[in-house]
Amino acid sequence: MRTLDDLLTEGVEGRRVLLRADLNVPFDKEKISDDGRIRAVLPTIRDLVTSGGAVIVCSHLGRPKGAPDPKYSLAPVAARLGELLGSAVVMAEDTVGPSARSIVDGMGPGDVALLENLRFNPGETSKDDAERLAFARQLAAFAQSYVDDAFGAVHRRHASVYDVAALLPHYAGHLVLREVEVLRRLTGEPERPYVVVLGGSKVSDKLAVIETLLPKVDKLLVGGGMCFTFLKALGHGVGKSLLEAEMVDTCRDLLERGAGKIELPVDVVAADAFAADSPHETVAVDAIPADKLGLDIGPETTAAFASVLEGAKTVFWNGPMGVFELAPFAAGTLGVAEAITKVDGFTVVGGGDSAAAVRQLGLDESAFGHISTGGGASLEYLEGKELPGLVALEA
Ligand code: 3PG
Ligand code: MG
Description:
- By secondary structure, the chain is an alpha/beta fold.
- The chain is built from 15 helices and 17 strands.
- α11 runs parallel beside α12.
- The protein binds 3-phosphoglyceric acid (3PG) and magnesium ion (MG).
């Protein structure tokens, strides 16, 4: 894989570089609620700018349906990127249309521009190779080199991630390199005990990674919305909690195969409704009231998970333990995250939501070995899947 350092050695002075970033940041109404993904790509942008390159940044945001949709405009991201860089970032009104073309034409050394949301163009995510390629050609026409630093999107076979790399000299950015190096360490011979903590809402999203990791880990701690399908498989009633009924048998099978490895909550915080002001109580997992829903792991569980983590030498954590965005249901995620910061070993936080949780709950980011910017991407890497964006960079 050629890297950004190789490109900088070749020289970018007076040249235009197309930089694919993953600036798909979460919003709370109109405000960016976590700018971690923007900050993660700054080192790459700064190096290009300092070397005299003109940097055309592009990204997706959310999942618009192949047409402009103001709700998913990257304009607030351009503003935040400009603040962080300390210099203005020019925002195009389209992806490859007249606005983008005229901005790109006017760029000089050290300039940074951001194209509008790539998914406003149907070619970006199209399943039709020709349609994707046509869009990739328009993007490629803007620049002389392509740098991919969108680790969070390398698992997507999209025009700006996959097809464009075949059209321009291509390089992996600093972030992509760092992410791959960390994940390689986890898939190699991790120091033991190796503890994986999984949360988030759906078992079905995590099934493949559980299958792959189960033989490799010493302990798998399960919290978040997905724990209820496991609890159901143990025969517990889960009330109105999140449940994937069609996954119960699968969970039962996993529990059998993972006997002694998989640890489930012993208590949960159950609420009347999915709301911050809802009445709630801590209950044992065999006593979840039929009319309530579990929104966090309970304090006994948090303590049990923390004591498993205490002895760990390698930790991978993906997915919050509860609805941490609502204060009454944040304690489980906070407690587990704090326990991970105390681990005397290599710790990795994988995923958009868990990474956002770390920052929103005010934890010290430097207390973790690595905070990944990729949720789906890091999981698919750990599953051993081929990631189109990385394949394209290696070609
Ligand atoms: C993410 O947040 O998971 C990445 O930005 C990829 O987005 P996507 O899941 O909509 O492709
Ligand atoms: Mg996603």
